[in-house]
Give the backbone structure.
Amino acid sequence: MENYLIMQRSQYMLNITKIIQQQQDVFNTGQTSDISFRAEQLKKLKQLLQKNEKDLYAAIYEDFAKSEFETYMAELSQIYHEINLSIKNLSKWSKVKKVPTNLANYPGKSYIIPEPLGCVLVIGAWNYPYALSLIPLVSAMAAGNTVILKPSELPNRTSKIMAQIINQNFASGFLAVIEGGIDETTEILKHRFDKIFFTGSTAVGKIIYQAAAKNLSPITLELGGKSPTFVLKDCDLKISVKRIIWAKFLNAGQTCVAPDYILVDKSIEKDFLNELKQQFEKNNEFYNQDSFVKIINNNNFQRLQKLIDESKIYYGGECNKNHRYISPTILENITFDDKIMQDEVFGPILPVITFENLDDVISKIKEREKPLSCYIYGNNKKQIDKILQQISFGGGAINDSVMHLSNSNLPFGGVGNSGFGSYHGKAGFECFSHHKSILHRSNWFETSLKYPPYKKYKQNLLQLIMRI
């Protein structure tokens, strides 16, 4: 049996090596650099996804009961948007960009050439298995690379349907999906890539980063963190709560940019909690066991269940292990020392912390790792500006949550422990491109200034030129 497993592993390694070599060979032909080729492949991908939408919906429902509406809204529509945007702007994004030439290099001209990086690896995440795998894939294709996609193995049906759609319709030398878990990912990471793009937890991100460093592969890490939400006393309470609930409990809270916890002004705490309860009761049929998205697996279910302090439940708290169901749960009287405040929640549990002094609570946040997102509900410009200026975070919104991701003109990414590098729209194209800088000199004039012998008058003239 042991020899059989060793043989299997060896065969798997050979297959990975073969695909990577194929992709490097295809890239070296220059075929993927052609703008029309990129556009054709992106159109083909969109057509295949549209053709297989029913299977995509069925697969994700089997994995964690996500509805067609939510899958289209939060995943497929975003992928289609990125494809359309990339096709529309490919020529513009790929254009040579002229830049000024300094006096020391006259006569001449300077420009920057965007070029694809080569064979890239995209490692997707489980919580939005289509969007977090295929949007970076689209960006990599638009930039002219060959791509290996490694989807998360946790939602295994979505992994299988993506592998089926791509591997049966694209040459492996251009696009390939490689499935598997930790062992397979470990084997893939032993190879050198021209770029690695990873979405997932900070802990796994560190492992990916170490593996990439061995081959000096550039990397983008899209990670997570505890994203705070400020609810100021002058906010529009009804609309604020409505938007917070939607953003927090979308996908059962399994969203990296979801509001992780609430910081509410003490003076409106009771009104805020009461409004939360009223809106949940108003939409109870959506959040019940039959309609709500499931927790992805039993391990995550048990982790989340342990975070619920029953003595601090204000609303919800219902758990059903057999259905991997946790009802939307609000925890009150929470402090920064509570267990739920130590790590990202990543589930349908919303801790509420009150504050009286904004400066004090900002200091508490700054003591911790930089979050991926931050949200502010209110209209006091002075307070809003203070939060924006003093807290470092990846991106966010004022009087809304999560929706900044839907604007492709806003690069999406983290900072510090929440990741580095960004994508979406043009930022995605640039994420998978190298910008080659070129100086093109003319031959009709040459100065002796930079050549020996080095004289004092030359130094004086050089200093004068460099001041200009």
About this structure: The mean pLDDT is 94.
